[in-house]
Write a structure and sequence with these properties.
The chain is α/β, with parallel strands linked by helices. Helices cover about 45% and strands about 10% of the residues. Strand 4, helix 3 and strand 5 form a beta-alpha-beta unit. It starts with a helix and ends in a 17-residue tail after the last strand.
Length: about 260
Amino acid sequence: MIPLLFSLALLTVGVPGDSDHATETPQALPAAPTGHVLDRMDWLSEERRLTLEAELSRIHKEHDVNLFVVVWDRRLPDDQRPEDLAALIGHTWSPGEVWGTVLLTPGAINRPIAVTGGKQLTPEEDAHLAAAAAYSVDFGRKAWTDQDRLQQTALVLSEELVFARQTMTDNTTAITGSAAPLLPPASFLSPPLLAAAGGLVLLAVTLLWFTLRRRKQPTPEPAPEPATRTFPAPAVQTRLGAPWSGGSSLLVPLPTKPSA
């Protein structure tokens, strides 16, 4: 017990005149929590802490994404940024390929920060994760209370990390997977299939030839009208648009107007 207390005393340096929060040295980092939420100030309500713990544990189990929510209880030294502490937590506590840290410090209890990272990331993947962290922080700022702001930031970041993790997995599978064959399989080029395909092509060419041949045949012109025809014509020369042939002429009697 005494060596443990002595080690903690070496890791922690108090700031004179600051009775509320001590100053943490950059090297001081507690062991990883058993879960995903570390509230060193007992600031979160029990219900909110359990909600975050359940959701982050589910995401870690189903998608291999580690996200830690940390409420720090000590002021940081002047030469240490909150982003540096959040990155140190993620690199130290997370064994997975993709991780994120949502951190609250005493100096900015209403402004949570989010930092992301992972193992063997390409510059494009690193930029994608950084954009996800920025988006989650902007989304969380819309909440009314400080605890809501922290919870919304963490939940949105968890969803963004899951999406990024799936995208990275799909890209890796597409790069390392076997390429599709450029030529059809040998069974597709078997003689029976080739003969059937040739028959279909021949039939299509024959039908096309007959169609074009019928379109080229001239359309018969209608019979010319008699040049001496007057209206009303007493003799019918055509019937239903066709020349009248055979039989005697059909006379059409027309009544005459009585004279006055």
